[in-house]
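Design a sequence for this backbone.
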């Protein structure tokens, strides 16, 4: 939900503080997010604008958006995880269970 100017200010501050391992994560704040509103093309755009590693904070169901993000240059994937989706929670609809995480790691 940050503007490009806010991201620029953040990246500059991190670099001025000698941060050498900066990763920006593209995130859509919808829970769950749909692949259509995830705007994954932001990933290469952010990498080009700021010359940093870029990843995805993924709130979609399944692994499709995460896999697509890697094809677009993502080097980090963040997914919400649970041992059992049936345990519930505010994000339970898109939590990854162990067998799904295994698919993502292949």
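Sequence:
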């Amino acid at each position: 939900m940050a503007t490009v100017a806010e991201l620029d200010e953040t990246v500059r501050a991190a670099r001025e503080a000698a941060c050498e391992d900066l990763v920006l994560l593209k995130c859509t704040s919808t829970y769950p997010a749909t692949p259509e509103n995830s705007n994954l093309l932001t990933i290469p755009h952010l990498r080009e604008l700021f010359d940093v590693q870029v990843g995805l904070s993924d709130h979609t169901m399944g692994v499709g958006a995460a896999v697509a993000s890697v094809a677009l240059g993502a080097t980090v994937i963040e997914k919400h995880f649970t041992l059992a989706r049936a345990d519930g929670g505010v994000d339970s609809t898109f939590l990854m269970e162990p067998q799904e995480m295994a698919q993502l790691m292949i």
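The longest helix spans residues 4-16.
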